Amino acid sequence: MNSIKIILTGSTGMVGEGILMECLENPNISEILSVSRKPSGKKHAKLKEYIVSDFMKIGLDDENFKGYDAVFFCAGISSMGMSEEEYTKITYDTTLHFAKAARSQNPDMVFNYVSGVYTDKTESGKIMWARVKGKTENALRKLGFKGAYNFRPGFMKPVEGQENVKWFFKPFIWIFPAVFPSKSLTLREVGIAMINAVLKGYPTSTLEIKDIKNLAI
Question: What is the pLDDT of residues 151-207, one digit of tens each?
Fold first, then answer.
């Protein structure tokens, strides 16, 4: 496989934008379909955009998804102030529906999911978001993708030139990696690791920080 075509979500958020910028510059990516609720604001020969108001309304037979090698699912939301039911609908239901729609058009594709450090794979812990993320990870592994990789990054330094970086996050960009290097990654590393997961595969489906760094080499 010399080059790959990917579907990417979350391009208007910090993580998705950073991954998109790496994919646009990476020679191993030939085409990107950005699926989001609003335009990314970026223009590039590789980039196509599919604007969808509600991911749950995407049909399982949607041919816009046909012909792609992987999904980089970077969309997500904070659980702050949300009930478990609300958070589950957005984090679990929406992700699984999207995954099923993509796989129906591309049975041999890889699904890369941005999860989170401390995600609870037992689905029974005390932290609500960790349980829901764990449930989502477990369900994705059972859908029958060629590969389903759950990325659990810690602190992620944005790519230079990113626009979708919250003001309160900016003071930590230089401080956190210097103080906690083992808990920090760059979004470029995450992007490269995602691409390599499709091109090379990886021995485990759950990628912690050290695994992401290894795969980004």
Answer: 999 889 988 887 878 766 777 777 766 767 778 899 999 999 999 999 999 999 999
Of residues 201, 205, 192, the one with CA closest to residue 136: 205
Cβ–Cβ under 8 Å, residues 17 and 40: yes
CB-CB neighbours of 174 under 10 Å: 10
Distance CA 195, CA 22 (A): 10
Rounded CA gap, 36 and 10, in Å?
6
d(CA 61, CA 133): 26
* Contact (Cβ atoms closer than 8 angstroms) between residue 120 and residue 131: yes
* pTM of full prediction above 0.90: yes
Residue 208, both tokens: 């912690």
